[in-house]
């Protein structure tokens, strides 16, 4: 008995579709997972087995093999729990096999069978639409985030049982809907800081206006309390409003980083102000599991470096290439990741005595 479900993994800021293949055969009872998996994905074996039991699905003593394909790309994260469980249940005949076609499944399982929130749903759903998928099943907490993408149905589920019922009969459930245009307009109208609130400071305001008009970087030098940070925080308010495509690009980065919170989409230009003790990796991105850095989180917005001389020289040096190329390229043994980094750098410092 063989079945195939579809899930996804993050590659840079895009989603990469992954086939979750399950085979059930006679032999010694065994649950094995293959496909170049990291420790988080390998641990899904125990989470899935116990979640199935606690959801009321008693599996016969069979040899179960799950393969995540393509096998030459490393699989990371906890998004594969739900699709693995669904593929196994389909192989045992609990779900019609044809209902998994054109369906992307994402979600982490708790031991009691509940489906927990995951990061990166927006790029997953976006990639699924580009690949011709018709529907996505995601955790309920991520449903609004996924529904932002037009042209594909997004269903939110709270538990494994609910996901099985949905896959048996899609007509019994309504897909999540979000009025993205209205949400976009309403949130852009709200602004807690505005450049027009600044009194005086005519020379520096003019310099900032010129810098913003061409997305040029700027360095402000002045004594403590002269208003450098106040001015910097208000720079996004004089930048052009985000277009829908720009908003989606920023939202994909924040979704991967797990910073969307309750918001379905980022509608304002970002303002990032890292502390001067930040490391080079945290600033430009990377790590054992590559993630976007502060310069990518500030994409199409402002990266504010206060107390500029306090930053380590090595940290400042790594900014040179991203600022020239407007993206960050991170190479690892198994893959190369590229994150956008087109931002305006605003630095501030006290006069040198």
TrEMBL record:
InterPro entries, per database record: CHLI-like (IPR045006), MCM_dom (IPR001208), Mg_chelat-rel (IPR004482), Mg_chelatse_chII-like_cat_dom (IPR000523), P-loop_NTPase (IPR027417), Ribosomal_Su5_D2-typ_SF (IPR020568), Ribsml_uS5_D2-typ_fold_subgr (IPR014721)
Ranges where the MCM C-terminal AAA(+) ATPase domain occurs: 293-353
UniProt keyword annotations, A-Z: ATP-binding, Nucleotide-binding
Hydrolase recorded as keyword: no
Gene3D superfamilies in UniProt: 3.30.230.10, P-loop containing nucleotide triphosphate hydrolases
Pfam families registered for this protein in UniProt: ChlI (PF13541), Mg_chelatase (PF01078)
PANTHER family assigned to the protein according to its UniProt record, in alphabetical order: COMPETENCE PROTEIN COMM, MAGNESIUM-CHELATASE SUBUNIT CHLI
Family annotation (NCBIfam families): YifB family Mg chelatase-like AAA ATPase
Protein name: Competence protein ComM
Species annotation: Herbinix hemicellulosilytica
């Amino acid at each position: 008995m063989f079945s195939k479900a579809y899930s996804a993994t993050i590659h840079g800021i895009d989603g990469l579709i992954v086939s979750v293949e399950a085979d059930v055969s006679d032999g010694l009872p065994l649950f094995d997972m293959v496909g170049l998996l990291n420790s988080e994905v390998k641990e899904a074996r125990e989470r899935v087995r116990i979640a199935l039991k606690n959801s009321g699905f008693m599996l016969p003593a069979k040899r179960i093999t799950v393969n995540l394909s393509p096998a030459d790309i490393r699989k990371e994260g906890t998004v594969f729990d739900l699709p693995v469980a669904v593929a196994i249940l389909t192989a045992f005949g609990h779900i019609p096999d044809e209902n998994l076609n054109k369906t992307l499944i994402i979600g982490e399982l708790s031991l009691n069978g509940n489906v927990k929130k995951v990061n990166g749903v927006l790029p997953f759903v976006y990639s699924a639409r580009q690949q011709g998928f018709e529907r996505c099943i995601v955790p309920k907490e991520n449903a609004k985030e996924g529904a932002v993408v037009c042209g594909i149905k997004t269903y939110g589920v709270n538990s494994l049982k609910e996901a099985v019922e949905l896959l048996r009969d899609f007509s019994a459930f309504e897909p999540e809907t979000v009025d993205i245009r209205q949400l976009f307009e309403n949130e852009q109208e709200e602004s807690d800081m505005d450049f027009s609130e600044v009194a005086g400071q005519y020379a520096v305001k003019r310099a900032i206006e010129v810098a913003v008009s061409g997305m040029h970087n700027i360095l402000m030098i002045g004594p403590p309390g002269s208003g450098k940070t106040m001015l910097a925080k208000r720079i996004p308010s004089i930048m052009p409003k985000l277009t829908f495509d720009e908003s989606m690009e920023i939202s994909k980065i924040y979704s991967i980083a797990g910073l969307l919170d309750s918001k379905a989409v980022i509608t304002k230009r970002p303002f990032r102000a890292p502390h001067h003790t930040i490391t080079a990796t945290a600033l430009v991105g990377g790590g054992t599991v590559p993630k976007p850095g502060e310069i990518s989180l500030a994409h199409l917005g402002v990266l504010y470096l206060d107390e500029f001389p306090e930053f380590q020289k090595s940290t400042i040096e790594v900014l040179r290439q991203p600022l020239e190329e407007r993206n960050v390229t991170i190479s690892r043994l198994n893959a190369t990741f590229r994150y956008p980094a087109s931002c305006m750098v605003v630095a501030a410092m006290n006069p040198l005595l």
